[in-house]
C-alpha cells in the first residue's frame, strides 16, 4: 500500500496547489549576483523563532562574506501558498524554503527538492544523528533527508497550577479528555475573564484541524478507511466532533471560531484561560516573562486521550532546497548554520534559553542552562515527540501518512474546507451533523480518486 501510495502521489497536483499558482507575485530571482556577492533568497514563516534567526543572520554573513541573505517572511497561510507555487513550478524565486514534514516526503517523491544527504554526509560535525529519530524520519524519503529541522513539536496540555490549586483539583500526568472537560467546567469563570480551556476554532488545515484531528484519532475515528472510503460521518468521528465543539462552546474562549494558535497563545499568556491544548512549542512563550503574565505558573502534561495510549501530533518546521536552486553549496551553508548545534547555543546566550528552537536535537536537552529554563516542559515535549506515531495515537489502520494531517496533496484544500465546517459549528451557524455531512461530501470526492487508482 505504501509504495502504491507513493506512485499515486507523484505528479498529483491538488486543487489547492493549482490555486496557489495564481498567488505567485514577482520578486527578485534567487541566487542573484551583484558586485561579486551571491544573494540567497530564503522564504520562511513569520513566527518568533524565525524572527530570532533573522536577527542573528548578520553573523552568518560575517562568517560568509561572499553571501548576502534576503528573507521573505510571510504569515503561515501566505507562506505555504507562495512556497508551494514556486517549488511546484520550479520558478526559482527561492534558494531555501521553509516547509514541514507534511510537504517534505511528497515533494521529494515529486522530484521538487534537492537530496540533502550528500551535503549532510560531507559536513563534518553537523551530526544529523543528533536529530530526534521521529523528526529525522519524517523529513526523509527513501532513506535520505530532503529537509533539515529548525524546530520540532508534538502537542500537550498546559494548565495553570495556581488555579488548579485554588480549586482543589489535581491534574493527572496522563489525563483523559473527559477529565479535561470536567476540569474546564469547574474552572470556567467568564465573570473574571477566564475560560476553562482554549482550543483552536480558526479555519485552516494547519489551524483548527491540527488539534481537532488528534481528538478524532484518540476517539477512534479516522479520515479514510484502508480502502479510501471517507469516514467523517462515522460514529467515532461524530463523537469527537461533538465533544470538541461542545467543549469549546461551553467552556472555551470567547470568539473561539476565529481563534488559532496565536490567539490562544495571547489569551493564555494574559491569564485568560485555565488550560490550553496545543503545540509543545507554546511553552517557551508561556514561560517568557517578557511576553507572558503567567510565566512560572504553568504545568504541562501529555495530550489527553480517550481510546489510545497517546494522542500528540508530530510536526517540524524545516529548511529545504528547491531542485532548481543554482547556488546549492551556499544554500546548504546557510541551512547548516541555521540548524546546527551552535545556533541553539547562540540563541540561548543572546535571547534567553526559553527562546531556543525545541524538539529537534537531542543534545539541546543536555545543555544545563536549557534544562533549567525548560524544566517544566522539556520532558513532556520529548515524551510527546517520542510517542507521536500512528500505532500509539490511532485505533485503526489508515492508508495515509500523518497524525494531525492526512499526508496527501489534496489535504491542503480538503482540510481547509472541513475546518470551515467545524468553525461554523463552533460559531453556532450550523449543527455538527450538518457540518459533517458537508465535510463527508468533500472527503468522498478525494477518496474516490484514490479508489480508482488502487
TrEMBL record:
Keywords assigned by UniProt, alphabetized: Signal
PROSITE patterns: PROKAR_LIPOPROTEIN
Signal peptide: 1-30
Entries under Gene3D superfamilies matching the protein: Periplasmic binding protein-like II
Pfam families from the UniProt entry: SBP_bac_1
Xref: InterPro entries: Bact_solute-bd_prot1, SBP
Official protein name in the record: Sugar ABC transporter substrate-binding protein
Lineage: Bacteria, Bacillati, Actinomycetota, Actinomycetes, Pseudonocardiales
Amino acid at each position: 500500500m505504501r509504495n502504491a501510495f507513493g506512485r499515486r502521489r507523484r505528479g498529483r497536483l491538488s486543487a489547492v496547489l493549482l490555486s496557489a499558482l495564481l498567488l505567485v507575485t514577482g520578486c527578485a530571482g534567487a541566487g542573484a549576483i551583484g558586485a561579486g556577492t551571491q544573494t540567497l533568497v530564503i522564504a520562511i514563516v513569520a513566527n518568533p523563532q524565525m524572527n530570532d534567526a533573522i536577527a542573528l543572520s548578520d553573523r552568518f554573513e560575517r562568517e560568509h562574506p561572499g553571501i548576502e541573505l534576503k528573507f521573505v517572511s510571510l504569515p503561515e497561510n501566505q507562506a505555504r501558498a507562495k512556497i508551494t507555487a514556486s517549488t511546484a513550478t520550479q520558478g526559482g524565486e527561492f534558494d531555501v524554503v521553509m516547509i514541514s514534514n507534511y510537504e517534505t516526503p511528497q515533494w521529494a517523491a515529486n522530484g521538487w527538492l534537492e537530496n540533502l544527504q550528500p551535503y549532510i554526509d560531507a559536513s563534518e560535525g553537523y551530526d544529523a544523528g543528533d536529530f530526534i529519530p521521529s523528526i529525522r524520519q519524517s523529513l526523509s524519503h527513501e532513506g535520505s533527508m530532503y529537509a533539515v529541522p529548525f524546530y520540532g513539536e508534538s502537542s500537550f496540555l498546559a494548565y495553570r497550577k495556581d488555579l488548579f490549586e485554588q480549586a482543589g483539583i489535581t491534574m493527572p500526568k496522563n489525563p483523559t479528555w473527559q477529565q479535561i472537560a470536567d476540569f474546564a467546567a469547574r474552572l470556567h469563570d467568564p465573570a473574571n475573564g477566564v475560560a476553562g480551556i482554549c482550543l483552536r476554532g480558526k479555519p485552516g488545515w494547519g489551524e483548527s484541524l491540527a488539534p481537532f484531528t488528534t481528538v478524532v484519532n484518540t476517539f477512534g475515528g479516522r479520515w479514510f478507511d484502508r480502502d479510501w472510503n471517507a469516514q467523517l460521518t462515522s460514529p467515532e468521528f461524530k463523537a469527537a466532533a461533538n465533544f470538541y465543539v461542545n467543549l469549546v462552546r461551553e467552556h472555551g474562549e470567547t470568539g473561539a471560531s476565529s481563534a488559532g494558535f496565536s490567539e490562544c497563545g495571547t489569551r493564555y499568556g494574559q491569564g485568560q484561560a485555565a488550560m490550553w491544548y496545543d503545540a509543545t512549542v507554546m511553552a517557551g512563550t508561556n514561560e517568557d516573562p517578557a511576553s507572558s503574565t503567567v510565566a512560572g505558573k504553568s504545568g504541562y502534561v501529555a495530550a489527553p486521550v480517550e481510546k489510545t495510549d497517546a494522542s500528540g501530533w508530530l510536526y517540524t518546521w524545516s529548511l529545504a532546497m528547491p531542485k532548481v536552486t543554482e547556488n546549492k553549496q551556499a544554500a546548504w551553508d546557510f541551512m547548516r548554520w541555521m540548524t546546527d548545534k551552535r545556533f541553539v547555543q547562540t540563541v540561548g546566550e543572546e535571547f534567553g534559553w526559553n527562546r531556543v528552537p525545541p524538539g529537534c536535537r537531542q543534545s539541546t536537552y543536555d545543555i544545563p542552562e536549557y534544562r533549567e529554563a525548560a524544566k517544566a516542559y522539556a520532558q513532556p515535549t520529548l515524551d510527546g515527540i517520542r510517542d507521536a506515531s500512528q500505532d500509539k495515537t490511532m485505533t485503526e489502520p489508515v492508508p495515509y501518512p500523518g497524525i494531525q494531517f492526512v499526508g496527501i496533496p489534496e489535504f491542503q484544500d480538503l482540510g481547509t474546507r472541513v475546518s470551515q465546517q467545524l468553525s461554523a459549528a463552533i460559531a453556532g451557524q450550523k449543527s455538527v451533523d450538518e457540518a459533517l455531512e458537508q465535510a463527508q461530501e468533500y472527503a468522498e470526492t478525494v477518496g474516490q480518486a484514490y479508489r480508482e487508482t488502487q
